[in-house]
C-alpha cells in the first residue's frame, strides 16, 4: 500500500495542528507523519486515503489535541496549588506542627481520625513534592 502525500496547498484554510491531526487519524487506524513537503498518510489503501483526506479537509487547527489538553491540566494544577495561601509550600514537619497546634484538641476524642488525617497530610506533601519539587519552601 502506498504512502499518500497531502501538500500544504490541500490543507484547510486554518492550517494544521499536527498533533491533533495525528490523533484524529490514529483514531480510525490511519497512520501518518509530517515532513517539510507535507503531511503523509502511511501505507493506506484507497478507502483509507479517502477517509484520511476527508479528515484532513474537516480538520480544525484551532482545536487542541489530547496531549495539549493534558499539558494544560497539569500546568493549571500547579498554578492552583501555588495559589493556596501559606501552606502550599510547607514541609511535612510544618504541616504536622500546624495540625498539632490547630486540630489536636478537636480530634483528641477520635485518635483514629487524627492518625488518618496525619497520614493523608503526609501523603499529600509527598505527592506534591513528587509532582512539583520546586514548590516546597
How many helices in DSSP terms?
5
Gap from first CA to last CA: 58 Å
Q: Give the overall silhouette.
A: rod-shaped
- Report the biggest beta sheet as strand number plus sense, adding barrel if it closes: 3 strands, antiparallel
Helical/strand content category: mainly alpha
State the order of secondary-structure elements, H for helix, E for strand.
EHEEHHHH
What is the percentage of strand-forming residues? 5-15%
The total tally of domains equals 2
Helix content: 55-70%
Low-confidence stretches: none
Please count the beta strands (DSSP E, at least 2 residues each): 3
Notable characteristics:
137 residues; mainly alpha; 2 domains; 8% strand
Task: Give the topology, please.
Blueprint: E1 4-6, H1 18-26, E2 31-34, E3 39-42, H2 46-58, H3 66-82, H4 92-107, H5 111-131
Descriptive notes:
By secondary structure, this protein is mostly helical. It folds into 2 domains: about 55 residues; about 50 residues. Helix content is about 55%, strand content about 10%. It has 5 helices and 3 strands. It has a 3-stranded antiparallel β-sheet, with helices on one face. Strand 2 and strand 3 form a beta hairpin. Helix 4 packs antiparallel against helix 5. The model has no long low-confidence stretch (mean pLDDT about 90).
Amino acid at each position: 500500500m502506498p504512502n499518500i502525500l497531502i501538500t500544504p496547498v490541500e490543507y484547510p484554510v486554518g492550517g494544521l495542528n499536527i498533533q491533533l491531526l495525528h490523533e484524529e487519524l490514529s483514531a480510525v487506524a490511519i497512520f501518518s507523519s509530517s515532513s517539510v513537503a507535507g503531511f503523509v498518510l502511511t501505507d493506506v489503501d484507497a478507502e483509507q486515503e479517502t477517509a484520511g483526506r476527508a479528515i484532513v479537509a474537516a480538520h480544525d487547527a484551532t482545536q487542541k489535541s489530547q496531549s495539549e489538553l493534558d499539558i494544560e491540566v497539569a500546568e493549571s494544577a500547579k498554578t492552583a496549588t501555588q495559589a493556596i495561601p501559606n501552606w502550599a509550600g510547607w514541609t511535612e514537619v510544618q504541616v504536622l506542627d500546624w495540625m498539632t497546634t490547630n486540630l489536636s484538641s478537636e480530634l483528641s476524642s477520635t485518635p483514629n481520625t487524627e492518625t488518618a488525617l496525619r497520614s493523608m497530610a503526609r501523603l499529600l506533601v509527598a505527592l506534591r513534592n513528587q509532582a512539583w519539587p520546586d514548590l516546597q519552601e
